[in-house]
Each structure stands twice: as structure tokens, then as C-alpha cells.
């Protein structure tokens, strides 16, 4: 799916750019600024993915499991203030790629539509799977924790590495 988003978005974006913004497509200052912005955003996306992935690995696994699978609901760290922190970071991935490419149409039209599609998939697929996997525990969690939270304190948690051995049995409540 990611390849479809990235390659499809890039090809469509370039096609639109050459029709609508041909001067921007050939502008060195635009590409320099766009590439720098894309690198910074990509670094942020990778950091959020690493931090949230480590919380899942350290708190969401009991016993021997295949890589990338969890069997315990994680409600600590950034998961204490939002249910889908990794997806929040991943929604920015197409934008980072579009900026690296230097495509204004991809960055400002297609990437936001792809982020919206990711959001819809989270609510239609991820939420249903989590409810099925964790049952009443997830329902209680979902009733007190929003799917996404853009408060400053919650966003800061997305960038903080988890402790080596975090206390995964209690929620880390965020004061706002």
C-alpha cells in the first residue's frame, strides 16, 4: 500500500506540476527548500515510528511472538494520551516523500488526501481489529483516550525514547 501511495502520488503529482506549476518544477530554490523540509519531516516521521514501535515492543509483547506482533494492549507512554500515535507519524510520510521529490501537487493536494485515507483506514480497520483482539479492555481504553491527540505534552511523548524496562502496567497520565 505504501508503494502505491508513494509511487502513484509521485507520478500523478509530477504530471499535475508540469501542467499547473511548470516554473516551480524547474525552480532550484523551491527544490532546495522543499528537499530540506522533506528531510526534516522524514526524520520526524522515522523518530515517531521508532519511539512508538519501541513502546509496542517493550510493553505489548508477552512471551514469544513473531516480530511486529503484540498480545497486550499498550496504554503507556504516548499510548496513554492517544490510541494511534504511530499512525499519526505515518500519516506524514507521504508529505515527507512529496517534499523530498519537490512536487507541489503531491505535497499540497495528493499527500493530504493520502493522509485522510490513512485516517479512514485507521478507523475502519485498526479500530475494529483492536476491539476484536482486546475486547472490553480496548473499549474501556477507547472511551477515555482519543484516537489522536495534538496537545503539546502528548506530542512531546512521541519524541521521547521509552525506558529500557518501562512500567507497562500503569498508564502514564499526561497533565495539560
Protein described:
This protein has seven helices and no strands. It is mostly helical. The protein has one domain. The longest helix is centred in the C-terminal third of the chain and has 41 residues. The protein is elongated. The C terminus is likely disordered.
Give a quick set of tags describing it.
mainly alpha, disordered C terminus, 176 residues, 0% strand, 66% helix
Ends distance: 36 Å
SS-derived structural category: mainly alpha
Q: Sheet bearing the most strands, described?
A: none
Overall morphology: elongated
- Sheet-strand content, in percent, reads under 5%
What is the CA-based Rg, rounded?
A: 18 Å
Summarize the structure.
This protein has helices spanning 2-20, 22-25, 28-59, 85-90, 93-101, 104-144, 152-157. With 176 residues, the protein is mainly alpha-helical.
Write the layout of secondary structure elements.
Blueprint: H1 2-20, H2 22-25, H3 28-59, H4 85-90, H5 93-101, H6 104-144, H7 152-157
Helix pairs in contact: 1-5, 1-6, 3-5, 5-6
Amino acid at each position: 500500500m505504501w508503494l502505491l501511495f508513494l509511487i502513484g502520488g509521485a507520478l500523478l503529482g509530477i504530471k499535475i506540476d508540469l501542467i499547473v506549476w511548470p516554473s516551480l518544477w524547474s525552480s532550484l530554490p523551491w527544490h532546495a527548500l522543499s528537499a530540506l523540509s522533506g528531510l526534516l519531516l522524514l526524520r520526524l516521521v522515522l523518530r515517531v515510528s521508532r519511539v512508538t514501535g519501541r513502546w509496542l515492543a517493550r510493553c505489548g509483547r508477552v512471551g514469544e511472538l513473531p516480530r511486529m506482533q503484540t498480545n497486550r494492549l499498550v496504554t503507556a507512554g504516548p499510548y496513554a494520551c492517544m490510541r494511534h500515535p504511530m499512525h499519526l507519524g505515518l500519516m506524514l510520510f507521504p508529505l515527507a516523500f512529496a517534499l523530498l521529490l519537490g512536487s507541489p501537487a503531491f505535497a499540497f493536494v495528493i499527500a493530504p488526501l493520502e493522509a485522510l485515507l490513512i485516517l479512514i483506514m485507521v478507523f475502519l480497520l485498526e479500530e475494529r481489529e483492536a476491539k476484536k483482539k482486546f475486547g472490553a479492555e480496548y473499549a474501556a481504553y477507547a472511551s477515555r483516550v482519543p484516537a489522536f491527540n495534538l496537545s503539546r505534552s502528548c506530542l512531546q511523548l512521541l519524541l521521547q525514547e521509552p525506558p529500557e524496562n518501562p512500567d507497562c502496567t500503569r498508564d502514564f497520565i499526561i497533565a495539560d
